[in-house]
Design a protein that fits this description.
Helix 13 packs across helix 15 (313-344). A hairpin with a 2-residue loop joins strand 5 (401-403) and strand 6 (406-408). The strands form 3 sheets. The chain has a 4-stranded mixed beta sheet. A 3-stranded antiparallel beta sheet has the order 3-9-8. A two-stranded antiparallel sheet has the order 5-6. The chain contains 21 helices and 9 strands. 50% of the residues lie in helices and 8% in strands. By secondary structure, the protein is α+β, with helices and mostly antiparallel strands. The chain has helices at residues 2-32, 35-38, 53-59, 61-72, 91-100, 128-138, 144-148, 151-170, 177-194, 207-216, 220-228, 232-238, 246-265, 273-279, 313-344, 346-359, 367-370, 374-386, 418-422, 441-446, 465-482, and strands at 75-80, 83-88, 175-176, 392-396, 401-403, 406-408, 413-417, 483-487, 511-516. The N and C termini lie far apart (92 Å).
Length: 521
């Protein structure tokens, strides 16, 4: 009886302690939620613990930010979980954060969901000197000269893509542009980042494809839970529940490790990113040519204590994985929306095809000519403006500073809603209309440069931007040589964007038909 009473007392103490800790945590969270109120910054009322995330999930991120800007202006405060985010759509202040005062905002906001290897060593999640080092080493990998060498891989993937489209077109089938764009993007990334040749549209049960999709597409319920309560990620992972299944991650890392081992032993040089990563282990990046859009090495000097050269095995593995995941869905989204927009705007489609016929004709698409298709560029940028694959940018404040008269403390985050800026009538008259003429040289010169942010700006912009554009234009130019995308019975235009928290999707798909062009090309 005495033992039972002792157990009861211990249990009571444990329950009381747990409730006390919970109460303290809730109290602390409620104090965090008063951060902006204390400094006189308006914003939507946060809920305990989850902040404003629940409203963002309920309405969709893009809709929320547009409504909030209309109500609170170009600077307001929200809470993504327990992290205060100062939302900024003032373009001059965005320039200050991304470029002029980058030293105060060098990092991206990271989540507990990815606070472990291999995720913690990617360019998206690394911070401060460690990030600067890896960025400096990797920048030459994406120079124009090296991208040009990857053209054979892209050309092979385009041939597979055209074969798959032709088969469906001959049967008169309607097709979801996102489906075949995703397959093409998967084939390209597998080829240039891993040296693997696949045809994922024809072989959806290929192990690499299935494993990658398991990593990319976590169940929506899990994403919702982790967006609402992100700190749960580290605890769920310990009991085997993770956004990316451990066995799938292990498989991809093993593929990378095996490929790296083979490349180090092989005397042959391969035209892909994997080869360039191997070379990045030893070759100094400072002597290599880098395109100015991604070359920020002079601005990213590391501290004198940072003396390591090249990349570690872990850094190569992590960033190979990043190129797969970051380069796959974003390019597929951009490509599918571009084809869909061209199908819905046949006058623009005709102009693109006339340009392609004139510059390429019956010839094979090559690197040089892809840089001589200005109207295709204009259509691509206009489609990305309307449907940006990356909807939110953020920068973490690493020191106490002031932005637009607002005092920011270390650890706070500046959040930049790209879609809100891209569809703001102040910067883009009649913003929901597809109008490639917005991107003529004259129009761009007259517009604020920070009104268009598909790849970010400044030292932390997208390192793979030129590769993504090359990959997309190579496929679209090859398609439009031979086919004309048209709307079909299943098309819903303009597309309604899903509220999915982590993916940019059209709720009803992006359905089109491909009509073979009359002329022989």
């Amino acid at each position: 009886m005495e033992t039972l009473w002792c157990c009861f007392q211990v249990t009571g103490v444990l329950i009381f302690s747990a409730l006390l800790l919970l109460a303290l945590w809730v109290w602390k969270a409620s104090q965090v939620n008063k951060t902006f109120e204390k400094i006189g910054i308006k914003g939507p009322k946060p809920k305990p613990i989850v902040g404003n995330i629940s409203e963002m999930l309920e309405k969709g991120f893009m809709q929320c930010f547009k409504e909030w800007e209309k109500e609170y202006g170009k600077i307001y405060g929200i809470y993504r979980g327990q992290v205060p985010n100062l939302v900024v759509t003032d373009l001059d202040l965005i320039r200050e954060v991304m470029v002029k005062n980058f030293v105060s905002y060098p990092n991206r906001q990271t989540s507990k969901m990815v606070d472990y290897k291999p995720w913690s060593e990617t360019l998206l999640t690394l911070k401060d000197d460690h990030w600067k080092h890896v960025r400096n080493v990797l920048s030459p990998t994406f120079s124009s000269g090296k991208l040009k060498k990857m053209l054979p891989v892209l050309r092979r993937c385009c041939q597979d893509l055209l074969t798959n489209i032709r088969e469906k077109a001959e049967r008169g089938e309607e097709m979801d542009a996102k489906e075949f764009s995703s397959a093409y993007s998967m084939d390209v990334i597998a080829g240039v980042a891993f040296g693997i040749q696949i045809n994922s549209l024809k072989n959806p049960d290929e192990q690499f494809v299935k494993v990658t999709n398991r990593i990319l597409y976590a169940p929506p319920w899990m994403l919702t839970v982790l967006f609402l309560v992100p700190f749960l990620g580290q605890y769920l992972r310990h009991i085997g529940i993770a956004v990316a299944p451990k066995d799938a991650l292990d498989y991809v890392i093993d593929v990378i490790s095996s490929a790296l081992k083979q490349r180090r032993q092989d005397q042959q040089k391969y035209p892909d990113i994997l080869q360039l990563l191997v070379e990045a282990e030893t070759e100094p990046s400072s002597v290599q040519q880098v395109d100015p859009e991604i070359d920020h090495r002079k601005e990213l000097s590391v501290s004198s204590s940072w003396i390591r050269k090249g990349l570690t095995e872990g850094e190569i593995q992590s960033n190979s994985l990043l190129f797969l995941l970051a380069g796959y869905d974003t390019t597929a989204v951009a490509m599918s929306f571009l084809l869909f927009n061209l199908a819905a705007n046949p006058h623009c489609l005709r102009k693109v095809q006339e340009e392609i016929d004139k510059k390429i004709g019956e010839n094979e698409v090559d690197y040089q000519v892809l840089n001589e298709l200005p109207y295709l560029d204009m259509c691509m940028y206009e489609s990305i403006r309307l449907y940006p694959p990356g909807n939110l940018l953020d920068r973490e404040c690493v020191e106490d500073t002031v932005l637009g008269g607002v005092p920011l403390r270390r650890g706070m985050v500046v959040c930049i809603p790209v879609y809100s800026i891209h569809t703001n009538p102040e910067y883009w008259p009649d913003p929901m209309r597809f109008d490639p003429e917005r991107h003529t040289p004259e129009a761009k010169a007259a517009r604020h440069p920070f009104s268009f942010l598909p790849f970010g700006m400044g030292p932390r912009n997208c390192i793979g931007m030129r590769f993504a554009e090359l990959e997309l234009k190579m496929a679209v130019a090859s398609i439009l040589q031979k086919f004309s995308p048209v709307l079909c019975s299943r098309s819903v235009y303009p597309p309604k964007i899903s509220k999915h928290p982590a993916r940019f999707l059209a709720e009803d798909g992006l359905w089109i038909k491909m009509e073979p062009r009359k002329q022989k090309i």
